[in-house]
Design goal:
Elements: H1 2-17, H2 22-37, H3 45-53, H4 55-60, H5 67-78, H6 83-105, H7 109-123, H8 127-144, H9 150-164, H10 186-208, H11 214-223, H12 231-253, H13 258-273, H14 277-283, H15 290-309, H16 315-334, H17 342-347, E1 348-349, E2 353-354
Antiparallel strand pairs: 1-2
Helix pairs in contact: 1-7, 2-6, 2-7, 5-9, 6-8, 7-15, 7-16, 8-9, 10-14, 12-13, 12-15, 12-16, 15-16
């Protein structure tokens, strides 16, 4: 634990001194890969190991219905991988996607990798969600690129993501904003989401949920605690508001080429469309896992905005917005289950050392 903590502190200092360094960014992502790939216990480690080692049986008994994830497990089993070897490969691929996203867009890759470490700690335990988020990030990179088949590729990646975790299918609404050249009308989006939230409150439990079947009802019953106007609900709303304000101001202050402008407009619309998640959070805060992916995207583009606004009269306000979002991220991090995420990744590593750590599950924080 001391070795890991020391490496982190040293790298964090260098990332703050040289925030534009691509080399430091690469080293930080390698560091995260080692922490995750060679981690030998965390909150969901045993469950995922059991699914991996009995994936064929789980598939036949329909216990695991995310068939893409099941087939991936069976493929690695067929190749003779152990679960640890499987996690080394999966962690590399997932983190490499986020590394590419960082290097291609962020003008401060080293500093972003330091921030992303906080998100990574909250993400790595939930392997299926993390794979799904990596597929969404891949789809966004395609959209921000020049591929003439970006709509088709996006649709395929989202459907594949849904085969790893059903929540991936909730990315489908983003399909309809891919080629939009102007940002959505904020007032209309706000009104539409207000109506959707009101209807969901009135109709969901009594009329909609029963139509989804027993499996869905059991899932909602498991994860419905802490619903209503929760901290996740307001965190998502505030994050979107601040991101949209900053990126709209960026478009006003800086003259971009057509490609760059479309990229920023897409991220603005992505945030606005993501507000439909608020209706889901009201019933099941479990869907708040999407927030980790949204934080990654928004903070990266906030750093992009701060870079271009650094020579304008909006620089102070842009940095205040960025710091506000970072504070919100750290608050979310502090309230997460650190005993099942942070401490295991520090204490249970096959390279840096395995300590005798057993969390008190009666006092999970």
């Amino acid at each position: 634990m001391i070795i890991i903590f020391s490496i982190f502190i040293i790298m964090a200092i260098f990332c703050c001194i040289n925030p534009k360094s691509k080399t430091l960014c690469a080293l930080f992502f390698v560091f995260m890969w080692i922490l995750w790939g060679w981690n030998c216990w965390n909150g969901d480690y045993d469950a995922y190991k059991m699914l991996f080692e009995s994936s064929g049986d789980m598939y036949r008994r329909n216990i695991v219905t995310e068939y893409g994830f099941n087939l991936l497990n069976e493929f690695f089993l067929y190749l003779g991988f152990t679960f640890q070897g499987y996690m080394i490969v999966i962690s590399f691929v997932v983190l490499y996607v986020f590394y590419l996203f960082t290097q291609r867009i962020c003008p401060y890759p080293a500093f972003f990798s330091l921030i992303y470490f906080v998100i990574f700690i909250m993400e790595y335990v939930f392997t299926r969600n993390y794979i799904t988020h990596a597929l969404l990030i891949t789809a966004i990179m395609v959209i921000l690129g020049d591929s003439p088949r970006k709509k088709l590729i996006f649709l395929c990646l989202v459907l594949v993501g849904g085969s790893f975790h059903r929540t991936g299918l909730l990315f489908l609404p983003f399909y309809f904003i891919i080629d939009r050249e102007e940002s959505l009308n904020i007032k209309k989006v706000g009104l539409a989401n207000g109506v959707a939230l009101l209807l969901s409150v009135i109709l969901f439990g009594q009329y909609i949920l029963p139509l989804l079947g027993d499996v869905a009802q059991n899932k909602f019953a498991t994860y419905e605690s802490g619903g209503g106007f929760s901290s996740i609900f307001f965190a998502h709303l505030i994050l979107v508001i601040l991101t949209v304000i900053l990126l709209k101001k960026l478009l006003q202050k800086i003259s971009f080429g057509e490609k760059e402008r479309k990229q920023i407009v897409f991220i603005i619309n992505f945030n606005l469309v993501s507000l439909f998640y608020l209706s889901l959070y009201y019933h099941v805060p479990y869907f708040g896992r999407f927030m980790r992916c949204l934080f990654s995207i928004d903070i990266l583009f906030m750093l992009y905005a701060v870079y271009f606004l650094s020579k304008t009269n909006y620089i102070v306000k842009s940095r205040v917005i960025l710091v506000s979002v970072l504070v919100a991220l750290f608050i979310m991090f502090s309230k997460s289950t650190l005993s099942l995420t942070l401490y295991p990744i520090l204490k249970k590593n096959l390279i840096f050392g395995v300590e005798n750590y057993i969390p008190d599950l009666n006092h999970v924080k």
